[in-house]
Each structure stands twice: as C-alpha cells, then as structure tokens.
Amino acid sequence: MLGMLTRRIFVSGLAAFTATGAVRAGAPKTSLRPLMRAGSGSVVGRKVVAKGGAEALIAAAGLQGDVACAVADVKTGLRLEAVQGNVGLPPASVSKALTTLYALDVLGPEYRFQTRLIAAGAVKNGVLHGDLILAGGGDPTLSTDSLAVMAGKLKKAGIREVRGGFRVFDGALPFVGSIDKEQPDHVGYSPAISGIALNHNRVYFQWKRGANGYGVTMDARTDKYRPEVAMASMRVAKRDSPVYTYADKQGRDQWSVAVSALGKGGSRWLPVRKPGAYAGDVFRTMARAHGIILRKPKVVSNLARGGQVLVTQQSVALKVILKGMLRFSNNLTAEMVGMTASAARGARPASLKASASEMSRWAARKYRMTGTKLVDHSGLGDASRMTVQDLVGALVQVRKTGILRPLLKPISMRDSGGRVLKGHPIKVNAKTGTLNFVSALAGFMTGKDGTEMAFAIFIADTKIRARIKRSDRERPQGARGWNKRSKQLQQKLIERWGALYGS
User: Fold this and answer.
1) Under DSSP, is residue 317 helix (H, G, I), strand (E, B) or coil?
2) Nearest C-alpha neighbor of 24 from the set 396, 358, 501
3) Does residue 382 contact residue 90 with C-beta atoms inside 8 Å?
C-alpha cells in the first residue's frame, strides 16, 4: 500500500536516493521535481547494503545476484532515479518490447504475413500437372484452422487432383533447431523455427490409462479440428527417468515418456522440431477431407520463380499479432517477427543470433541503446544483455509516438497475499520477463496525479542460473521462491516511485 508521505519523510528520503545517467539531448536540464543526490548505498559481496531509498528496498529483499532499476519522467525526459543503471543484465521476455518496436519500425503496423499455395505446372480441367507447393511466408499465427481454410479455397479454385508431388517451402527464414539449445528438449516454449510454423510449432500429446496400458495420441488440435500427425510419435517406456527423451529418426520427431510420470491421464504441448513436415502433414489431411489426395510432403528451402498462385492466406495486421505476443509472451512469434524484420532490412539473416545482432545495431542507432547486445528476439537466451538506462531512454522517446503503451498489458498491483488491489491509484502497462533466477519488468506507470513515467527493473542471479543442469531447467529448485521475492521487490519500487513522483 502506498500511504501518505509527510513532508519530513519526503525531505529526509531524498538524501538517500541515487541518480545516474545524463539527461538526453533535447530534454530540459531542470525540473520542478527535485533532483536526486548520491545515496549511501554500497555493495558487499553480492548483496546491496544501503541506509535508505531504492537501494534499501533492494537490500531488504535479500535477493542474491544483481538488481538494476531506473525511472524517468516521460514528459521531460528527466532521469529520476537509477541503481546500477549501466550494468548489462539478461532482459528475459522484456526483449519482446524492443522486438515490437523493431518490427513496427521496419515492417509497419499494417504488415500482413502471407502463406500461399502455388501450382508448379499447368492446371487443366481441375488437374494440376505438376507439383503443389505450400509456401510459408513467416506467419507465426498459422494454425490448423488456417490450413483448413486454405484447403477449402483450393477446392473452390477448381483443383480436384494433383498429379505431381507436394512440397513445403520453409526457406523464407533460416532454420533453427531450438530457440535456446540450453533448454530441455521437451519444453514447448523452445521449438524449432523456419519460414513456416503451425500452431506455434507445438504438437499436442495426450495420454489415458486403459485396461491394457496407455493410449497415446499426437495431434495438431485447435478448437475446431484434431488431426493426428504422422511426423511425430510417442512411446511409453518402462523407466523412472528421464521423463522425456527425443530423437530425430527416419525424418520424424520420435519421443518417449517414462510410464512412472503419467498417472491416470493427462496432456501437454511438446515442441515441433520439423516445422515444414508438420505443416505439410496437417495440410495433407485437410486437403484429403476435400477429396484432394496429396503425396507425402517434401520440405524444400528454395522456391523457384514462377508458378501460379492458387490460394493466399493472410494473417491479421502486425499490430494485432504484436499485442498478442506481448500479452502471452510467445517466444516463437517474437523470433519469427524479428527475423522477418531483419530480412526486410536487407539480406535474409544467416541465423537467429545474426538477426538479433541486426536488431541490436538498429536499437543503438535509433535509440542510442549502446549497452544492449541480444542473442535472440524473445529473451529466452540468457546470454543477451541490456541496461535499464538503455531501455528507459528508449521508452521515453517512443512514448511520444504513442505506439507501445496501448500494446502492453496492464499489470495489477497486489497485496502480500497475491490478491489484486482494486482501484489502486498507480496504473502500470508493462512487459514482464521471467527465466530461472531472472526476473524483469519494464514499461510505463502513471501516478495518482497523472504523472507518467517510464521504468525498467532487471533482477538476475546469473551465477546460480549457470549451475542449473540442462535437464532441470524447467523447474529448478529455489527458482519459484526467488521469482516471487523478485516480483514483490518490483512492486515496492513501483509504489515508491508512484508515491514520490506521482502524487
């Protein structure tokens, strides 16, 4: 809770605040609000020890690792307070806010991805004398429903038979086997990437125990359809650990699961490692439902010029995709959007890291984010580094255009029990970021008096994170409690800034 500050508390508190970073060019050098003086905080070991101010809140949280935070007045650009403002830390999914700005700047808010069906041959009397090509265009929102619509349109276009082969073009973007190779094989938030993706490159695994053992299915379900797939399979193994194993065999994703982990029944999404084969598998099923029989799909990375476009499936506008990405923090969407933007700036990026480097260079030129070096567009890779001063400076600049805050989700203030505090005077729109022993929050806040501020808070214990085994990265010991304390600290910092600058 905020509470009211007496004049004595307000004045005495100023002496302990810390301000770092110069005012950006064009911003006023003076403000009606008090400038911060150097505080008395110091670093002992890996904990911040301080007598007051933001550093006292950080010290009281008792979090091992590094904490960096910064806040600025949006209207004037004045830096109000910062702790370790120029220390580079992993931004986690807060990276997606920068990816959003990158995509909007390069592609534009109304950009739409296209997935096409192309006839590589003559069409006579409803018969295609040649190959049918499903050509991906980097759409991260392509779903089983989308392919069903495309199959229906193909039928309406008069196609009833394909005499040639069936190819799937996935070369619009580079192939990446996993967004972050340090993640366990089975986590759905680190799938493969290519120029075509279906259902966020996740396959639905479901199991149920029966009289004769377990029945398992692997399908590409949506609310409307549940087509089973042939390119992924699951075997129930008599073992206790590991829970899952993965192998790339015979052109298929072959999984096994420990029987001791299954119970009576359940389900989960697993990552797809062969996006082109997955999309081709499902489209083949949808086409068959319309009487169009296709051969087994062949994935190709090159698309010959020419051919007749039979069907074009467009995505919704980019601004809508980005709002959903920020709300649900989908990693695949961030990577595909980011790489599409990099490709639009010049040559197709050779890798995910190369695309992220291009975005980092763009950020340095456009927003002077010289302390930002990213390895991906989603923040899943913990080798990325960003400073809170960099990000707050960019947020101050971009707020003048009004393009970002409406896309960021509202963040509720909560009491010590985790319950939402309804009617809280501070209004926050921000992007969260969470990895094991990494927690980040950045965006905009508005105080009770209408003062708008840009802020960023990065918390990371990279030493503990580095010691986590790859097999334990889904739920490592101690991460949940550490993350909870981090979020509590983030709220206390926001409440502090709201009390001092927004009331």
Assistant:
1) coil
2) 396
3) yes
5: its two tokens: 């500050």
What distance in Å separates the CA atoms of residue 471 and residue 473, rounded to the nearest whole number?
6
Distance CA 462, CA 481 (A): 16
Question: Do 386 and 356 touch, CB atoms closer than 8 A?
Answer: no
142 and 283 in a single domain? The answer is: yes
Domain check: are 291 and 435 in the same one? no
Which residue bears the tokens 């980097």? Answer: 138
Q: In Å, what is the CA distance from 453 to each residue of 28, 70, 71, 76, 83? A: 16, 10, 7, 10, 16
| CA–CA separation, 353 and 407 (whole Å) | 26
Q: Distance between CA 339 and CA 327 in Å, rounded?
A: 20
> Which are the contacts of 422, defined by CB distance < 8 A and separation ≥ 6?
none
User: pLDDT tens digits, residue range 327-365?
Assistant: 999 999 999 999 999 999 988 899 999 999 999 999 999
* Inter-residue contact 377 to 337 (CB < 8 Å): yes
Identify the three-state secondary structure at position 338: helix
CA distance 438 to 433: 8
For residue 364, give its domain range.
90-110+318-384
Tokens of 224: 């409307």
pTM score of the predicted model:
0.89
Do residues 386 and 95 lie in contact, with contact meaning Cβ atoms separated by under 8 Å? Answer: yes
Q: Does one domain contain both 131 and 143? A: yes
**φ, ψ of residue 365 in degrees (nearest 5):** -75, -40
